[in-house]
Structure formats: structure tokens, C-alpha cells
Amino acid sequence: MPPRIPRLLALGLALTYAGAVTINQTASTYTFANDRVSFDVVKSNGYIRNLVFDGVSVLGTLSGNAGQLYTDFPSNAFALTGNLEGEVVQGRNYAGIVLTDNDTATGSLVQRSWFLRDGEAGLHSFVRLAYFNDTPKGALGEVRTMFRPNGGPWTTLVTNAEQWAPAPGAEAVANEVQVQDATWYLGLTPSDAYVQQESDYFTKYSFADNQTNKAHGLYGEGPDGTPIGAWWVVNQKDTFFGGPFHVDLMVDGIIYNKQSTSHGGATSPNVTNGFDRTFGPQFLYFNRAPNASLHDLLADAEKYADPSWNAEFYDEIAPHVHGYVPSRSRGSFSASVQVPHGAKDVVAILSANGVHFQDSAADPAAYQYWVTDVRDGVVNIDRVKAGTYRLTVSASGIFGDYIQDNVEIKAGKKTHVRATWVPESAGLELWRIGVPDKSAGEFKNGWERDTTHPRQPSKYRIFWGAWDFPNEFPGGVNFTIGKSDEGRDWNYVHWSQYGPTYTRNDTVTNINRWTINFDIDTRTARGLTAQSVATFTIQLAAAKTTAGNTDADQGAYPSFPINTYVNNGTDPLSWTIQPYESSSCGERSAISCHLLTKKFQFPGSWLREGANQFVLELPHAAPVYVQYDALRLELQ
Predict the structure, then answer these.
(1) What's the pTM?
(2) In 3-state terms, what secondary structure has residue 516?
(3) Among the four residues 207, 306, 440, 504, which has the most C-beta atoms within 10 Å?
């Protein structure tokens, strides 16, 4: 183990050199520097200030918490103590600091670690949270590490290669009108670059992404005009929760690294005695190059979003990062899966054993891994922590998933699985609406582009009030199988009520009932016998009760029913959405949040030859909604 630096040294004296990484201290700060990057760590709270890359101040000036790089805990499950211990560590070509807040009164421990390597233009980050007390804390909630500049060279917000836009200017911010929490109308400043290129509305949720994101950040120009980028590179995601489809904030002027969250109805771990979780590593990376485009710098950052990158370095610093799993404790996984005909965009996921991958936080010790580009059913995942996992294989176009529990990964070994995915079937498929892909994107106002702005963002990313549902669908959706078009005639959100919005003062309530019309031909009708069984499947991309993202039994509708009436029957097929299944999704510019599925079986004799009708009903005039992934009717 590399020697530890003594804590008590003459102030102002250069402590040591780690290769070309220097460490200095004053009464109030530690300063780390290599030939590209330098930064100060504040001794009182562990925040990072005065971060400079190639001579450019990338955090700008200090103002409150702005102008700093730091971790905080909005859900208050953990907190900094104000009694920080900082331990400087070094190796042959790196130096770092481990910052420990040990609250002995409550048994809570927060440990933040930063490392700087010789020749690298970035910082490696870890966060450890531990709790040793017989009194449970409850849900972990939100934990985030934020690059929060105040000024600096930044002009553009970048979620990924597709979603990016100029940051709103000072005049637009000064004249903004709030229309929802964290959402503003900026149309009073029509000459603003954001308004001209992206939208009249700004919300941080427009720049969210799911956990397949490789890098996100800010783009701009340095004082000499050279393009420059700052990026959170998500090089290891195994210590997060929620799986590949979990959506969270990426950038809104701040660059976020979210270790835990409840956004999108995500499940966060329950903190009880013995909880001990180390999140990371992630890499805060800076780059610049003459004439480089935003996409050039982003692509450069994304090259480092590889779990094998810097694996030897992370093994070297593992003695200083409690809870990091070194290579010797990892194995590999492969699979050959025969997927159903028509399966597209096949994803393979390893997650907590015995639970849905989106609920992996049910096991606070669980890790997660996935591959999103499975070809010909061949799966390979390296650097998997030894343990027992659930394998889930999912695909666009196929209802349901392939699931196999008790997949054991052994350190230093390769586990191989052969499997045949038999798709769900309940007889003859009469019709389907939507593509089962765990999103509502294919429907109107989902992935559909806003062609009124040059950036043409997907409409779901913009504040929902920009798309006036009562005008687009007077009285609600009325959809006819074989005639209607999903992208035009079925909305991405089924609202119970709509409004008020910036452009609408009233609340419209006659939209809670949606109608599906379909015909059954003579040949199919012969199967409508007393013994026949119809199966109606609803897959939801999200459902929002008055619980929001909290799971709490709160508000007027913490749970609510979705009722399906078959051919004007009086006894509906009823599905009650529970508080713990709720997710604030569509109103937070998302099309995929907490995934839900329900299958109804009913007598085939409820159907008839010729015209048939389903009515999907939400409670009248209620602050609730659902977002459909796909629906299907089968007959056997």
C-alpha cells in the first residue's frame, strides 16, 4: 500500500509529488495539480473550488454553492457533519484525498474520494455511505454529485448526441414565468438562443436521460476561442440502481452524477443497520481542441465510458476506497439466447436476484449490468461482481421478458447460460396498440419532433402544457383498429384532467375515457364460444397517482383504478395502481418510468361478431394519468 501523507505539515509547504501530481496545502485548502488540471479541496467541507483545466477556470466564481464541485443529500438521509477528516493518499502516478464525515451520534458515515492521475484531464470520484444504528433511516432517496459552475466558458447543455441546446441567457432567465416546479416559460424573450432553437419552455427534465447514457455535460469556448467540454463520464454503472431504462437528470447548467434518486418513480434502497454502499467510480473529464464540434468532444468523452478502462488503476487505489470491488472479485458472464421472431433492440440485464430489474434497490447490496446491443442472441458482460443475479432479456416488439433467476457469477470464472425465450401468448392475437418497448414514445407527442424550432426536440422532452390535449383530442382519444394511426391518434399521456397551463386557464375533465373500436370478422367470431377466453394485456410505461414519486399514501388519489369496459358492460376489468407504483413521468418530460403490466382474462362471449368497443376509464377530474407502453387483445 502506498504510504499515507501525514496530516500535520507546515502550512504552505508542498506536501509531496505523486509522479507529476503535486499536493499542497494551506490553512483552509488542499491543492492538487497535474499538467492539465488543478483544484482546491476545502478542508472544512470537502467541496472542490478553483478547478482549472488547461488554464481555463471551469467552475467560474464562488457564489453560495455555485462555483463548486460537491456531493449533497436532498432527501436528508445522510448529511455532512462539519467535522471532516481528510486523508491524502498517493501512489506512483496519482494522488487523491479521502474525505470522511463520521457522525458517531447517529451512526452515519459519508466518505467522498477524489483521485487525480498524471497526464489525465479529469478527476475520479467515489461516494461511500454507511449506517450503523438499530433505528432504520428509511429510504436513501436522492444522492448526487454536482459540477455546478457559476460563469465560466459554458454555452450549451448536452445530454447526448441527439439532445442538446444553448443554455438560456440572462435576459431570458430574468423574464421567465414559472409554469410548474423547475419549469419556466421563456417566450417573453423571443431573441434568446434557447427560445429560438429549442423551445419557449425550459425545464431541467428536458435534458434527462436513462442509464444507458455514456457521458453528458457542458460545451463552450475558452478565452482564446478554443472549444471546450466538461463531462460526467459514466464509466461504471454497476453500483447504481434501477436498470438501463431508469431516467434521471443529466444537465441543466449543473452537470449531475446521480448516485441514488426517486425520480421517475425509481426505488431507492432502504437504509438500515449495516448499510454500506460505495458508488463509483465515475470520471469528471475535460477536453478541448481547435475547431472541435460539440459532437467531437462528446464522442471523445464517451470513449472512456467503458468498465474496463482504467481497471488496473482502480485496483491500485482499491485499498483507499472502502467497498470498491477489485478485479480479483469479479467474473464474467455470457449467454446464447434464442430470441423470439420479430425481437428488436434486444437488451440483456443482470440485476438483483428474484426482483424486477427496476426494483433492484430492494437488495441494497445488489449490483447491475447490461448489454443494449445484443446481436443474434449473443451476450457478453465482463467485470461482474461475484454473486447471484437475475437475468432479464427484453426486446422491442415482444410482450413480456425472458427471466431466469439464480445466475451465479464466481470470481475469476466465466458463467455461460443457454436459453430459449418463448414469447407470451394467450391464443390468437386480435389486435395490438403500440410497440412493447417499455416506453410511450411511438405515440403522439412522444418521439414526434417539434418542427417549429430548428433543434426539433422530441415533443415529450418539452413541458407537457405546450401540447394542448383537449384541442388535439376533444373528449379524449377515439381510436379505431385498422384505421387510426398510433403516432397521430393515440396520445403519449392518458390524462384524467388537463390544465391549467400557461396558455389555458381552465381545467378540462371530459377526457378521462378513451375508446378503442374494433371489428371481429365472421371466421374469428366462430371462436367466441362459451369456453373461449379473451386476454387483454396492458403494459404501462408509467402511472402517476397523487403519491408522485414518494411511494407515500398521500393526496386525494394515492391509488386509483384503470377500468376497462367491454362492449358497454357494467362490470369493468379493473386494475388499481398503488402508491408505490406511481411515477411522475409525463409531467416531468419522460416517456418511460416505473414499468407496470396487467393481464385480464374474461369470457370470449363478451365479444361479438362485427363492431366491438373497449372504453379505458380513469377517475373523473382527478390529478392522475397513465402512459401506455402497449396493449393487446388475444382470444383462445
Answers:
(1) 0.95
(2) strand
(3) 440
